[in-house]
Amino acid sequence: MQVGSPEFASGVAAFAALIATISALISLLSAFIARKNWRDSNRPVVTAYIDEESEGGGTTVFNLHLGNSGTRPATAVRLCAHPTDVQRLLAEEAEVKRRNNIERIFAVESRVAVLHSGETLITSFGLASENPDQKWLKYGEEINIKIKYNDLEGRSYVSHIPLKVRPREGFGGGVWRSAV
After folding, report:
1. Percent of the chain having pLDDT more than 90?
2. Count of CB atoms situated within 10 Å of the CB of 167
3. First to last CA, the chain
4. Within a 10 A sphere around the Cβ of 129, how many other Cβ atoms?
5. Residues 75 and 152: beta-carbon distance below 8 Å
6. Which of 21, 87, 96, 145 is deepest in the core (most CB within 10 A)?
7. 77 and 4 in contact (C-beta within 8 Å)?
8. What's 82's DSSP letter?
9. Are 168 and 125 in contact (CB under 8 A)?
């Protein structure tokens, strides 16, 4: 093959076509990866946790916090737990009406229509007490829940979260008040 020959020209053309094809494939792959990274970082991220509202006289009152730490709103947010798991949280002495209050949080009817980015909603989540007449929850009990939600385009997400009936402040067993 000599420079200027038809064979050389067709070889150069084939090589140029190969390079152009590889470049196009790399560009498509880059666009795919960029879109995937954008979707992964620009989405709702919904979590939940139980925290102490107040404590005193042997009674601790708890709230359930539901928050979106993602960059986009979440829609149709629903907490899901197996009924037997929810029962594990509840004290045997808890009145039926108190049990229903906790169970309702995990019902379809309690679905949150929209949870904005950076927003945290709070609902009461019962109390733990040394007094058997006021006991709703088993202090220290933990269950795993799912949080199901969508983004504005209808893509579905599921977060798997452990819920523990215990204050977050002093999670290791105590806290120096001067540190708070």
Report:
1. 56
2. 16
3. 82
4. 19
5. yes
6. 145
7. no
8. -
9. no
- CATH number attached to the domain at 46-164: 2.60.40
Pairing of strands 112-115, 74-80: antiparallel
CA distance 117 to 146: 19
Residue for token digits 């880059």?
Answer: 30
| Encoded tokens for 8 | 């050389």
Residue 20 token pair: 């152009």
Instruction: Tokens for 120, please give them.
Output: 């945290």
Report d(CA 5, CA 8) in Å as an integer. Answer: 5
User: How far is 138 from 165, CA to CA, in rounded Å?
Assistant: 7
Question: Tens digits of per-residue pLDDT, 69-107?
Answer: 999 999 999 999 999 999 999 988 888 998 999 999 999
Per-residue H/E/C for the chain: CCCCCHHHHHHHHHHHHHHHHHHHHHHHHHHHHHHHHHHHHCCCCEEEEEEEEEEECCEEEEEEEEEECCCCCEEEEEEECCHHHHHHHECCCCCHHHHHHHHHHCCHHHCEEEECCCCEEEEEEEEEECCHHHCCECCCCEEEEEEEEECCCCCEEEEEEEEECCCCCCCCCCCCHHHC
